[in-house]
């Protein structure tokens, strides 16, 4: 995407300044026969991931919608995917992992020793019930929070 859209702002500087205006079609990067043959092309499964990220979505009978996200073209910048998603090859070093790890350990499992990559919703049902009780808004009486 970067190569296809970088110059749209009049400067070739390695930055896609307006990703929403980019009309890059990721299917041009499809590997032969859609197979995963390495880092120079995208397999059909990888293209499906790109399409799910960039395409509009609707669920709960249309109650929730998402317009999809633009590809930025800067995924390989050191402060983009390597920092946030891939952890430069070590998933435990990715910032997204650190967020989910903390959430699983301290909120869902309520066990700082829990391996968050091995956690499943039914690992500790008492912790799930405790979380549900904390989060469920079943009492609509707001008087305890009113200040006189």
Shape: extended
User: What strand order characterises the main sheet?
Assistant: 1-2
**Rounded average pLDDT:** 84
Order of helices and strands: HHEEHHH
Figure out the total of helices.
5
Describe this structure in words.
It is a single chain. With 148 residues, the protein is mostly helical. The chain contains five helices and two strands, in the order H-H-E-E-H-H-H. The chain has helices at residues 2-5, 44-54, 81-86, 95-108, 125-135, and strands at residues 57-59, 64-66. Strands 1-2 form a two-stranded antiparallel ribbon. Strand 1 and strand 2 (64-66) form a beta hairpin. It is extended. The model has no long low-confidence stretch (mean pLDDT 84).
Short description:
With about 150 residues, this protein is mostly helical. It has helices at about 1-5, 45-55, 80-85, 95-110, 125-135; strands at about 55-60, 65.
Write the layout of secondary structure elements.
Blueprint: H1 2-5, H2 44-54, E1 57-59, E2 64-66, H3 81-86, H4 95-108, H5 125-135
Antiparallel strand pairs: 1-2
Quickly list its features.
148 residues, mainly alpha, two-stranded antiparallel ribbon, 5 helices
């Amino acid at each position: 995407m970067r190569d296809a859209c970088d110059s749209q702002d009049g400067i070739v500087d390695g930055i896609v300044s307006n990703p929403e205006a980019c009309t890059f079609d990721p299917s041009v990067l499809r590997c032969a026969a859609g197979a995963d043959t390495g880092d120079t092309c995208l397999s059909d499964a990888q293209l499906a991931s790109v399409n799910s990220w960039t395409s509009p979505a609707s669920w709960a009978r249309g109650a929730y919608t998402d317009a999809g996200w633009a590809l930025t073209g800067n995924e390989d910048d050191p402060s983009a995917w390597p920092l946030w998603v891939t952890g430069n090859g070590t998933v435990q070093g990715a910032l997204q992992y650190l967020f989910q790890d903390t959430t699983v350990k301290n909120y869902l499992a309520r066990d700082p020793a829990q391996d968050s990559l091995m956690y499943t919703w039914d690992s500790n049902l008492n912790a799930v019930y405790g979380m549900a009780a904390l989060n469920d808004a079943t009492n609509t009486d707001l008087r305890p929070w009113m200040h006189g």
